[in-house]
């Protein structure tokens, strides 16, 4: 994240400049969708949550105290929106069908991707969001840290633990050990 | 399953589980869909710009000071000490001058009607005092000057302790009674006095109940059974009927026995039209009671609830599980509270002469769940008593008189997209939160309205909640389209997939009806009964 430049854009948006808000939207929309996806595991809902998060952020932006905390703040709004949608959805239906386009890639000969996907989906949200941002959106530690408002070494630690948990799950499900 | 022999095999595998899509930001689309958000941003930013001037030097200095973590820590410690002292101070004051729950409730719930409610409450308390002193002439004087509610209460007291001197005051009130004849408290008082005035030998045999405690019940015992649940006359168990016994103990909040509690039950017939008093009794010095009554006839009668009434406590009750005997009933009576507020009608106007009854709903664990207020005159119910006010307006009363929130609709099935701005000058009937599987009756009603007012300046829009809401059954887009295609919907029908419109209107129950006037304001939420009258009024304006 280009620290100062980003802060200036946030400041401008906070003063009511729609174009600046548009820049923020374009910059962070993708990571917000992935963040929401890590909670909802559903593309349509994730996009809804992200869009709604931007609506809320837009309305509340003048109240944001620190411009440098914009992205973590937005991320928290997005998480809340996603959890709200998840609750609504759970209320509406107990089982959550996975969209056709969300299914893992076809099973290859040497690797049961479905099993890996299931292990990722089963992670706690804290770990799943790191996995999604790192592997799906291809963000590095620094970018993830800036997005979530946590330290780089925390990201590294969570990623390490997330991978270990995935491995453990795979092993429990009969994945052969080295 | 074979594990590949590569160091980063897991990284590759996880990366390959990524869904085969990638989100694409489209700000213009977002902007057109959520224009209101940017408007809000601009407005708030402008307001803030007006408000925020240069920071005063003292505040700036304070902010600078608070950057130091040590000073921050010290300030937090100071605050904690202050809170501690305050809490101690308050708790000491509380023990020094005990505040009754009634006072707390009153303080919390009073509003602009405090004075009126206090005066009414004061009258009731005075009446109760006179009753305890068995001061019939005092009660009669108060009945002359008191409010109608006080008169009703006093009639209940006179029913128990009144004498012939009260008859002349009770007769005109009994004649004026407008409620159901069998609930006339004044008539009941008169009957009771007549019975007492007769020689003891002529008293109704029904009074000599086969109930040990009841037989010892002193005439005019201090019981404040109000007229609300008192049935016409106590019925003795019929000859030859099987008897059933209910017994138990009545305690107060501190588990102390409450003697002298009036215990009674009502047998309801299955039509709920006729009810007779099962039996009545008083608790003994240990708070114990013993009530024997004829077992209700299975299938046609039910004895559902036992009531426990004592002048010093709020009405208590116990719901019976069935018609079998139960001798381990434990009832706790609580100190009474008071609620004050305003009753307003659908148009926000105060309602005079509403007859209010409060009803405490208890949750399964016995904690107070909700205080329901009922307006018996207008047959409306209002449940939210957080501030003691009563609103005879079932839906969206917060929107009343305000500009209707704009529609934010994903799909219009049988019309071009409409906005409320475009419909200015017309009366709009909005049905928010339609759910297809449950749309039978409501659809029929709207169809009739649509037919009657076709071409007369009424626009009807029905908003389906969302396909994600599946109460009553799954609905697909095809189902909605089929409904429209089959010609069942002679009005605009649309889908609020994101429930934005539904949330903006936030109805208490769906589908909710809103009538919007020619200026775009929500005027009323009509019911099935008054919808046509309301529409006529608005069209006539």
Explain briefly what this protein structure is.
The complex is a heterodimer of chains A (178) and B (541). Chain A is mainly alpha-helical and 178 residues long.
Account of the 3D structure:
The complex is a heterodimer of chains A (178) and B (541). Chain A has 178 residues and is mainly alpha-helical. Chain A folds into two domains: 1-101, Rna Polymerase Sigma Factor, Chain: A (Orthogonal Bundle), CATH 1.10.1740.10; 104-178, Winged helix-like DNA-binding domain superfamily/Winged helix DNA-binding domain (Arc Repressor Mutant, subunit A, Orthogonal Bundle). Helices cover 71% and strands 0% of the residues of chain A. Chain A is built from eight helices and no strands. Chain A has helices spanning 3-14, 18-40, 43-60, 70-92, 113-121, 125-136, 141-148, 152-172. In chain A, helix 1 crosses helix 2 (18-40), helix 2 packs across helix 4 and helix 7 crosses helix 8 (152-172). In chain A, 41% of the residues are buried. Chain B has 541 residues and is an alpha+beta fold. Chain B has five domains: 68-98; 104-202; 211-340, Immunoglobulin-like (Sandwich), CATH 2.60.40.1120; 343-393, no CATH class; 398-540, Glutaredoxin. Helix content of chain B is 35%, strand content 19%. Chain B has 16 helices and 18 strands. Chain B has helices at residues 9-16, 27-33, 35-51, 57-66, 69-96, 101-109, 114-132, 136-145, 148-161, 167-176, 185-197, 212-215, 440-452, 477-485, 500-505, 531-540, and strands at 243-252, 262-269, 275-282, 288-294, 301-309, 316-319, 326-333, 343-344, 356-362, 368-375, 380-382, 390-391, 411-412, 427-434, 458-464, 492-495, 512-516, 522-524. In chain B, the strands form five sheets. Chain B has a six-stranded mixed beta sheet. In chain B, strand 10 and strand 11 form a beta hairpin. In chain B, helix 2 crosses helix 3, helix 7 packs antiparallel against helix 8 and helix 7 runs parallel beside helix 9. The longest helix of chain B has 28 residues, at 69-96. The radius of gyration of chain B is 32 Å and the shape is extended. The interface between A and B is large, with 56 and 42 residues.
């Amino acid at each position: 994240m280009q620290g100062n430049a980003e802060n200036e854009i946030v400041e401008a948006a906070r003063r009511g400049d729609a174009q600046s808000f548009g820049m923020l939207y374009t910059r962070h929309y993708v990571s917000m969708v992935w963040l929401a996806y890590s909670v909802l595991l559903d593309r349509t809902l994730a996009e809804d949550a992200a869009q709604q998060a931007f609506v809320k952020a837009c309305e509340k932006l003048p109240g944001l105290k620190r411009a440098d905390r914009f992205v973590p703040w937005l991320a928290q709004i997005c998480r809340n929106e996603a959890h709200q949608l998840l609750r609504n959805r759970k209320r509406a239906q107990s089982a959550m069908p996975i969209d056709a386009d969300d299914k893992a890639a076809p099973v290859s000969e040497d690797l049961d991707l479905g099993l890996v996907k299931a292990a990722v989906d089963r992670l706690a949200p804290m770990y799943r969001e790191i996995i999604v941002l790192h592997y799906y959106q291809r963000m590095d530690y620094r970018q993830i840290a800036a997005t979530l408002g946590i330290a780089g070494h925390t990201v590294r630690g969570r990623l390490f633990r997330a991978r270990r948990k995935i491995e453990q799950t795979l092993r429990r499900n009969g994945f052969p050990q080295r | 399953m074979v594990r590949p022999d590569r160091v980063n095999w897991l990284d590759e595998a996880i990366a390959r589980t990524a869904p085969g899509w990638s989100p694409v930001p489209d700000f213009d689309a977002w902007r057109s869909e959520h224009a209101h958000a940017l408007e809000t941003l601009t407005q708030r930013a402008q307001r803030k710009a007006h408000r925020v001037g240069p920071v005063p030097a003292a505040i700036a200095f304070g902010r600078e000071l608070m950057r130091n973590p040590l000073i921050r820590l010290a300030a937090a410690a100071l605050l904690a000490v202050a809170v501690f002292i305050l809490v101690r101070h308050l708790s000491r004051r509380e023990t020094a001058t005990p505040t009754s729950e009634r006072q707390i409730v009153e303080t919390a719930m009073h509003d602009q009607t405090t004075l009126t409610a206090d005066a009414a409450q004061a009258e009731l308390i005075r009446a109760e005092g006179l009753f305890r002193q068995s001061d019939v002439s005092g009660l009669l004087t108060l009945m002359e000057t008191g409010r109608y509610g006080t008169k009703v209460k006093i009639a209940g007291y006179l029913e128990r302790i009144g004498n012939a001197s009260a008859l002349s005051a009770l007769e005109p009130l009994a004649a004026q009674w407008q409620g159901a004849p069998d609930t006339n408290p004044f008539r009941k008082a008169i009957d009771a006095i007549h019975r007492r005035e007769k020689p003891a030998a002529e008293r109704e045999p029904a009074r000599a109940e086969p109930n040990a405690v009841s037989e010892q019940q002193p005439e005019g015992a201090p019981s404040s059974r109000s007229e609300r649940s008192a049935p016409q006359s106590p019925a003795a168990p019929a000859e030859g009927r099987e008897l059933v016994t209910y017994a138990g103990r009545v305690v107060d909040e501190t588990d102390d026995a409450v003697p002298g509690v009036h215990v009674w039950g009502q047998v309801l017939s299955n039509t709920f039209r006729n009810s007779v008093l099962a039996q009545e009794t008083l608790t003994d010095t240990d708070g114990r009671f013993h009530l024997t009554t004829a077992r209700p006839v299975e299938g046609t009668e039910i004895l559902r609830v036992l009531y426990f009434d004592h002048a010093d406590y709020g009405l208590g009750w116990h719901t019976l599980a069935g018609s079998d005997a139960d001798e381990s009933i434990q009832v706790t009576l609580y100190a009474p509270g008071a609620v004050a507020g305003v009753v307003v009608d659908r148009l926000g106007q105060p309602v005079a002469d509403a007859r209010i009854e409060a009803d405490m709903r208890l949750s399964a664990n016995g904690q107070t769940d909700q205080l329901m207020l009922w307006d018996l005159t207008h047959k409306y119910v209002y449940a939210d008593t957080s501030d003691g006010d009563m609103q005879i307006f079932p839906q969206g009363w917060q929107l009343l008189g305000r500009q209707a929130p704009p529609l934010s609709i994903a799909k219009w099935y049988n019309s071009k997209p409409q906005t409320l701005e475009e419909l200015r000058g017309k009366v709009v009937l909005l049905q928010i939160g339609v759910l297809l599987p449950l749309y039978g009756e409501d659809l029929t009603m709207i169809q009739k309205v649509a037919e009657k007012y076709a071409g007369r300046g009424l626009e009807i829009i029905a908003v389906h909640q969302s396909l994600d809401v599946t109460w009553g059954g799954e609905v697909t887009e095809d189902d909605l389209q089929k409904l429209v295609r089959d010609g069942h919907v002679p009005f605009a029908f649309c889908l609020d997939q994101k429930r934005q419109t539904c949330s903006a209107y936030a109805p208490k129950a769906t589908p909710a009806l809103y009538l919007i006037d020619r200026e775009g304001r929500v005027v009323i939420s009509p019911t099935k009964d008054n919808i046509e009258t309301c529409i006529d009024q608005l069209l006539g304006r």
